[in-house]
Structures
1.
Amino acid sequence: MAHKSILVVGGGVSGLTAAIEASEAGSEVYLVEQKSYLGGRVAQMNQYFPKLCPPNCGLEINFKRIKQNPRIKFFTLSEIEKIDGVEGDYTVTVKSNPRYVNHNCTACGKCTEACPAERANEFNYGMGKTKAIYNAHEFAFPMKYVIDGSACLGAECGKCVAACEYGAIELDMSAKSFNLNVGAIVWATGWEPYDAKKVDYYGFGRHQNVITNVMMERLAASNGPTAGKILRPSDGKEVKTIAFVQCAGSRDENHLPYCSGVCCMASLKQATYVKSASPDAKVYMFYIDVRAMGKHEDFYTKVQDDINMIKGKVGEISEDPETKDLIVQVENQLTGEIMKETVDMVVLATGMAPSTSSALDTISYDEDGFIVSQPGIFGAGCAKKPLDVSSSVKDSTSAALKAIQSTVRR
């Protein structure tokens, strides 16, 4: 039996785009997202390049389109357990994990005030903490609180239950599985930042003031751990000298052999954060090659005049144990000089690794773990290859069209 509905796996910008475009073209769409909210990593950004506008500009419109569209059904805190069938006739088993908060939630926040337990704030990449019951972020969709079962003290505590006036908290919720019958699947599970601890000579995890590019986005964001002030983690000092280290684990056969394509632009964008906050700040960018494709060339040309661009792969980052300042050692490839620059903070431009590790044998991958499209199952966005936001939107629109065509021809 052929089915005309479409399953989209992943609720980031790629999955949102594919789901909305397919549904507005007339298809019934099921959207499955592992996190408690939609928006993915885009929601964690401070600004898009090259226009440097905040992510809620685009996400707000997409959330409104979802709310107004009866052909989209979305499931958060859910994951794919099994895929059976062939193009045109798939049976997909979805596991829905407990939120422990029901539809009565008004996001009033009284539960959080009462909760005594804490957890690391994953939305801020571990910088800071939240209570065990929390709202993922101020722009979360759906706007409902969620309990981290690994941090919650459970029924022996129950303070959140007592504090909730609406009967919204159910500590005995359990996981449930259900089946969906669909004709095509769009796999848009996005990307993960490469683990900077694996590049041990850069000291991430040992030196407090070595952070990653995704952490830098949260530091610069007004809803981040420092309310948008770029302060170094060790002592809260305002950053006056900073180094951006490109290809931290990328273009390296021991780590990610490929170029992620967007890291140079991301660092150039983040340099504007620093210069905007502190015009006199000294900014270094150590690079192998600067890759600013297409229209991004203008942005690169504009920013490079305000910072110190040094061609050379950083060999080592060490720390002054007293000041926690960082010493960046690199050979300048243009002059042959061995440089040692002392800075307040280092930002590692870690690459994009595909979030496909939890996918099933039904899905095909290339040698780097990115999804390879096949009849009836189509990769979209950064699950297929490293892309920026704009390119992910275009690619996901294409995937939606392919999925529609797949259901129609069956």
Note: The radius of gyration is 22 Å.
2.
Amino acid sequence: MNPIDFLLWVAFPYAAMAVFVVGHIFRYRHDQFGWTSRSSQTYENRLLRWGSPMFHYGILMVLGGHVVGLLVPKEWLEFFGVTEQIYHLGATWLGSVAAALTLAGLAILIYRRRLNSRVLLATTVMDKIMYLLLGATLLFGTTATVLYQVLGAGYDYRGTISPWVRGLLSAQPDPSLMSDVPFFFQLHVLSATLLFMLWPFTRLVHVFSAPLAYFVRPYIVYRSRDQHRGSGSRRPRRGWEKSELPGTGRERQGTRR
């Protein structure tokens, strides 16, 4: 086994996995105040209103395509009637649309940070590194897709990269699968691996803070404490006790007694 292949396609990915998991646990335990996307919407909203949805919807499409292409074996898709031609057309053109949408949204967000001085001041060094790695990963992947899938004869990464990823997850790595992978695909994989390694130390941690409890939390009831404010034409529901201001109502009557 080539030492370079072992370093790039076995040691480096496992190190990134370890840092990804341990880094998130460490930051959650010691930096919950910084566990946020650090929204800058109050500084500028016009460009954010366009760039943020484009980037987020695009990246969700990209991630969904990668999950299917890398983790679902080819035989499983063929069992459900998804032939090689259908998969190639869908992955190429839908993937290209998703990549273009994501890159456009990311470009708007970066331009917004450079244009607005207040947003730029709120940008940390790790934010800049994250944007650089994220942009490089998307650019390498888009370049590989255009060169080999759109303009070229096509490259079946489901026979090399996909088994390599599944081998890593099952603790059976095979670095030889990556030795003959085209250069831009290799750059895409390496930059994505480095991005996952730095993930816990960037604003990307907010991905794991989805407000799922919002859908099951109890309703919040707002009731006025001002007795002079009318309640409108709606009558109070049964079981609700009218709130009283301190020193008014029953409390005032008790004082008079």
Note: The mean pLDDT is 85.
3.
Amino acid sequence: MKTVKVYGPGCKRCEATEAMVKQAASKLGIEVAVEKVTDAKSIAMAGVMSTPGLSVDGKLVHAGGLPDETKLEGWLTA
């Protein structure tokens, strides 16, 4: 099971990123545990300078804007 964290204050882009993660995981048949991180201090400590941010299994893979669907699938299968 992959652990995915979505970093952001809860904006529409953050919600869309979470939905994209769940959709990609479902498409690929991968189990994911998605955690939303909304605390500003926690977001900054994770190294996210622009939201939404995304980490997979503890590695920050994306920050700022919606992730590319192909890249997202790659991160989930790595």
Note: Strands lie at 2-7, 32-37, 53-56, 59-63.
4.
Amino acid sequence: MKALLSFLAVIVLILIATLGVDVANLHFLFGIIIPYLAFVMFVGGFVYRVLKWGRSPVPFRIPTTCGQQKSLPWIKQAKIENPTTNLGVVVRMASEIFFFRSLFRNTKTELRVGADGPKLSYGSAKWLWVGSLVFHWSFLIIIVRHLRFFLEPVPYFVQIADSIDGMLQIGLPPIYLTDLFFLLAVTFLFLRRIVIPQVKYISLAADYFPLFMIMSIAISGMLMRYYYRIDIVAVKELALGLVQLHPVIPVGIGAIFYIHLFLICILFAYFPTSKLMHMGGIFLSPTRNMKNNNRMVRHINPWNPELEYHTYEHYEDEFREKMKKAGIPVEKE
């Protein structure tokens, strides 16, 4: 039911864009106003969430580790898993951000019935790591490729990424590898949520909605490239106009483009309020970005306020006569 509601929500968004462009001719709204609003909401929401997280006090060193801490000289330290230097933290964070190091070690727990009855068993969950890695890297390369619409001249690294990604020359236009990998990866992540009972039980509509949105964006983008040809020059003219703050609406782009653009705008506006904010939160995770040097440095909580304590001695001075009348023993007569 939760997946169905999210799917219907995406269908409604597609219908809104289709009717708004084809029936109401609201090209200015869907081509200029909504993209600017989405950009402001994305940047403003992203900065707000990051600043809010950055202000959260972290009074203790709480890095999660799975390696040997720095101890006696003859005990080998896990310098990346349990870093005590800034360099170790940087390497650990980089391996987490680019290669999902902790997810690689993720395991799955199952209750299996054997000859001696039910028993917990632990196994590898590498498919989740592979799917997540393919999804995120494909997403990144697709975003880099799309920079050619917003920049003139097109940077050299964008041209290199485009040529490598389109090396699979089967007809015209060339098939992008990341398009296929991205669609397969997001489909895998969706099927995992509806096939595995434990994951399905904890999944919410907020988990399905981004998957359907991203899947719809990928499908609409592939339709534009391989089936419903659009005017690429007009698209770049619109994109450059938006970036240069001199927007224009070229004629004859097609409704499929505005559907694609509208879905991207909704995803951008939704991004700061969703779980997708882990993109920014990973950098502020105290369990990852801290050195584990508790044995080397004494850490004092800098947020401890100066408090005025009311000691027992002051308490007795204040209520001594009343305590005597009540028969309560006092230290001073």
Note: The beta strands are 107-114, 117-124.
